[in-house]
# Entry
Amino acid sequence: MTQPTDIAELIRRNWMRVTDEVRQAAVAAGRDPKSVRVIGVSKYVDAATTRLLFDAGCCDLGESRPQVLWKKAETIGPAVDGTTNRSLRWHMIGHVQTNKLRRMLPLNPLIHSVDSERLLRAINREAERQQRVTEVMLEVNISGDEDKTGLSPDAVGQLLGIPGLNSVRISGLMAMAGWGTEASQAASQFRDVAELRDRLVASDEYNLPHLSMGMSGDFREAIAAGATMVRIGSALFEGVR
Ligand SMILES: *Cc1c(COP(=O)(O)O)cnc(C)c1O
# Structure
């Protein structure tokens, strides 16, 4: 059986390797490496192993289930590393049921996966009640797959245009390439997301600085297309499970 210290070392090496590859991809795309943030997707591992990823240097953790997010947040955070003063930000990247918002919003998560007007309004309502402003992104279904979640490009424009949602701050778009997509197809889907963002920003002066796209298998293509957040899971836990 592997000793815990070995797992810590393994995760540290994976983190170094992945962040190095992300940096290289940014440089190859002619971008500032600091403009791309790695969200460590910890949904594959338990709270103790997730903590090791934070210790390795990852300050942004992504979970796809609200219950797991808040359980881990109870165990690990609101972690502030005493020696370096790094603080931990939670990212919600999966489907959110509205009845989970009351408990999740106090953790100040960035919710990447807003995929309906109903959810956006519910977040706004609960955030207002809690007297906070919650940062969210709109999830776009760019591949057009029927079985994928996400808003059509038209619906994204409509949601951005809803007046009076003062307790949510929409900071960007999130997307996933279609299932089983070749890297070249993923690249063109990511460029479509970036173009949609550019169009929305140009036509209506929305402020959408973030593009959350790219996972372990296609983060290079996403970075080339302008991703500012890549959501990486399996590459960070290689050899751990
Ligand atoms: C699991 C997941 C990821 C991470 O995928 P990997 O291929 O393991 O890097 C990214 N985004 C979402 C929405 C996920 O559910």
Residues 41, 43, 64, 93-94, 176, 215-217, 231-235 surround pyridoxal-5'-phosphate (CB under 6 Å). Residues 4-28 form the longest helix (25 residues). The mean pLDDT is 93. The domain at 4-237 is CATH 3.20.20.10 (TIM Barrel).
